[in-house]
Amino acid sequence: MHSSARCSTGNAGLDTVLHGGLPASHIYLLEGQPGSGKTTLALQFLQEGVRLGERCLYITLSETAQELADVATSHHWDLQGIDLFELSSVEDLLGDERSQSVLHSWEVELGETIALIKQQIERIGPRRVVFDSLSELRLLAQDPLRYRRQVLALKQFFSPRNITVLLIDDLTGNHADRDTHLHSLCHGVISLERFTLEFGAARRRLQVRKLRGATFIAGYHDLSIRKGGLEVYPRLIAAEHHITFSDNLVPSGIAQLDALIGGGVLRGTSTLLTGPAGTGKTTLALQYVAAACARGERCYLYEFDERIGTLLSRAENMGMPLTRYIEEGLLDVMQVDPAEMSPGEFAWSVFKAVQDKGCKIVVIDSLNGYLTAMPQEKHLLLQMHELLAFLNQSGVTTFLINPMLGLVSSIDVGQLNVSYIADTVVLFRYFEAEGRIRKALSVIKNRGGRHEETIREVRIDRQGLRVGEPLTNFRGVLTGTPEFVGNLRPLMEGRDA
């Protein structure tokens, strides 16, 4: 759809959602409960106007100038260049005989207040205006019909003046007292939400409800308030991102492992590493990461479970110089706190790693940690499917680590079964032989091509990860109750190293 020139909101994520910004010279409604981030977003909108050399005006009926200055200071901003019209001292403008304060706004005539606002706009001539908030205007009107007429009059007043206006509504009061007609009067509506989970930080999200004559990314978008402003994480749509890449094989650097997977993992596919804890899933993923970094490819590791220091120390002991690759800028390791990071923020972080830094391999360790970040589990597979589709279409090789519940007895796949959306599935198991706990791995499926149907022993020590011969003398390894039917020659012992 064709639209007028776009007006940047000053927020890169929101501009992405709006496909460039708000169509200029219109009135928009910014609504949300207290604490959802409306004032922060409004100040970002005006800060962008100041940066572009536009005259900006903040009309406040609810917050004082000091309160706004405190918000700006918390983000290392200043209000220079923004004209502030504070109606908390409206008695000075109405005269001594009308000594009212915004703290008792229902005693002030609505018409006189609107007239003062119009005078300020005529005097300053702004290009951007924030009106905070409509709740106080609703109190002044006391009558829904009168309030509606005044809002419509404001719209007609702004319309010919080439001003982009944000009307803030904090949604206070009963649902019956709120006038839904605002959605029809305004050119666009942006809703902010804040909700608290049973554990962890409060979550915030944004939704563009309407935007006349312009396209936008529909649905909910996670956001957070950080020092420096409000960050919006646009919902990832895989269909909008596709590049041409060669679907060559990605080697691990271990000939036996590559042979097991048919020569290597195919680029642009996802590999699920599943099995009990301690069987070597993370080590196998790190082997691919180390090999890719040695080739000069950029890799990202998102660690939900293990501490980064422990991970790097373990890798160094096995001959993987991950610390050196981090220093060279080839590897980024991010410790993810599921109680603090929302799923949308995580997906956006992966998106930026691919788009901005050219990442070729992504490791997510583990899916159980990712599940913890979800406030609603029913959406987890949808978000994971969209993320994997984006990575696959971008030519990124992805490793997903999914620990099973249980160790050596009956094993459950855990809280999340994503095996059907993975292109390759590698299964790890424990088995017992000669009074020792041993490990085995096998490839269950490989959409990228052929793969061995054998079950091989795997050993992890200071020499790294080693893959042995097929366990032809055992049966029942995958069931967890192996039965010895031959000699012990294929087993990997320390003396064979």
From TrEMBL:
Pfam families named in the record: ATPase (PF06745)
InterPro entries: AAA+_ATPase, Circadian_clock_KaiC-rel, KaiC, KaiC-like_dom, KaiC_dom, P-loop_NTPase
Domain of life: Bacteria
CDD domains: KaiC-like_C, KaiC-like_N
Entry keyword set: Hydrolase, Kinase, Phosphoprotein, Repeat, Transferase
Coiled-coil features, chain-numbered ranges: none
EC numbers on record: 2.7.11.1
Domain KaiC as annotated: residue spans: 5-246, 248-481
Enzyme kind, highest EC tier: transferase
Keyword Repeat: yes
Name of this chain's protein: non-specific serine/threonine protein kinase
The organism of origin for this protein: Dyella acidiphila
Taxon lineage: Bacteria, Pseudomonadati, Pseudomonadota, Gammaproteobacteria, Lysobacterales
